[in-house]
Amino acid sequence: MTINSNMRINSDRLWESIMEMAKIGPGVAGGNNRQTLTDEDAVGRQLFQSWCEAAGCTMGLDKMGTMFARREGTDPDALPVYVGSHLDTQPTGGKYDGVLGVLGGLEIIRQLNDMKVQTKHPIVVVNFTNEEGTRFAPAMVASGVFAGIHTLDWAYDREDANGAKLGDELKRVGYLGDEEVGARKMHAFFELHIEQGPILEIEKKDIGVVTHGQGLNWLQVTLTGRESHTGSTPMPMRINAGLGMARITELVNEIALSHAPNAVGAIGHCDIYPNSRNIIPGKAVFTIDFRHPQKDVITDMEARLREGAKKIADEIGLGMEIEQVGGFDPVEFDEGCVTAVRNAAERLGYSHRNLVSGAGHDACWINRVAPTAMVMCPCVDGLSHNEAEEISEEWAAAGTNVLFHAVVETAQIVE
What is the Cα–Cα distance from 371 to 338, expressed in whole angstroms? Predict the structure, then answer.
């Protein structure tokens, strides 16, 4: 028995599961607030676990609280094919970011059960802890520990805004497992995700075949000037840190545009001191986010930023410090897994195109330790990390059907 185009998931069941999960940790504007290791996250985990166990899976839990729902294969020596994403959300998050990938993985298990189909390789559905990084920075912490990027103790020491530590919160909500993080070996890993960008919708493509993940470089800039009265300080005598930040904002935009179309850059977080309406800012602290799928381009963007920012600071008379506060190298996903995704889209008759993911995902870290690929479906107006995030039931079904075919083909149907 081989996989064929007639094999498809139950789209109604998938959608109903997504809507049921969305009832847990509702936001204030139609989305979700189910931040990692909160009480709401614990309830969402419990629901997911109950569904997995009802589908005949056994649940594993590692020391980072990552959940592994396993459907056995026929070959006890065959490494499992893993599939999944995350259930945690932003404080004002949508219903689909991460959730589609986890529940899409569960739907694969359910559909194989319905068809009474066995695979040679086990299939494991994963819910990674703290992908969003909104409560405990940085993002993708659990998958980072799994891939050896972070140590377990370092991860446990991450603190939220109220001083609560990640390790303590794992214990509090009852999801501190005893399995060593990263001990599992994977035959392959697949992650389904909404695009979080507008390309697929604009080009009317059903599926994004993700070939690369953008590298990321976060630089924190501190400009030091002199506070003085906005009304009585002559313009030539001002040492305005806010002016320096404004000019560097323009510089960031120019640098990113010079590497079009794949480069992006922006200042996302900023603090101005003393932040008073009638005081010229004496200090500005802000973070620059540069991304590109090629490491040499990211290096060039940083070098040009440092040179240009120094020139701006010197012209105004500002002191300046630049510190790298985050980042990871670009990702090239496994050719075999990417081909499996592309072949699945073609077998099912879905329009598709190659994509470079502009956001970080658990798949970006797992790619370091196992063959990995991603599937993406469109989202309305490219909007994500927003309660207005929206996809259609048809987009969800198409993405999950491609995921189903790629995973099952890799896991090998038993005749």
Answer: 9
